[in-house]
Structure prediction request, 202 residues.
Amino acid sequence: MTTTSAPIYPANTPIPIDLFVLKKHPGLPHGVLGFADSSGNIIYRVNRQCSNSSSYDKAVLLDSAGNPLFSLNSHHDGSWQGFKGDDGEKDLIFKVQRTLTKLRRTELEVFLVAENQGELICEFKVIGCHFQRSCTIYKGDSIVAQTSLMHKLRQIYVSRSKFRLTIFPGSVDPSLVVALVVIFLFSGPKKFRVLDKFPISV
Prediction:
């Protein structure tokens, strides 16, 4: 019997990518947030880890094979830092600063580390509403990605336990987009935070 691995999406894909953000999935252990494709294959998953002395919370974004892509660390001032892989705090890739947090609206600015310079340059903005599980990621005036609840015809109550992430064509690494969505979900008003609802993974 042959097995097939989940697809790997290139950064310059010519068509939009739809992923589905799940709180529960047969292929995920309890306490793990997943991003699945339309066939139900887990493409990315997120583990919450123990806090350390310099941050409140830490989450690790992994690919379908369990390889760590980004370590996401939150800090006392509401900011987040994204490091490459899971090797401590060595290779800083981006920093996210929360500029607005209200019950119905959160805004984040994303600063990427310029190659060979170490400077932080604002590249993206993330704006959305946690209650609706909706956010839009902008690069300048262009929309990079959006999340949305999955409405159905004649449906009165829309579940927030599963929703869609659409990544539009462009040169942005899908794993970076997923990392920003994870930070958005974890950084809103406390009552709507996804991170607080999951136990710590070991």
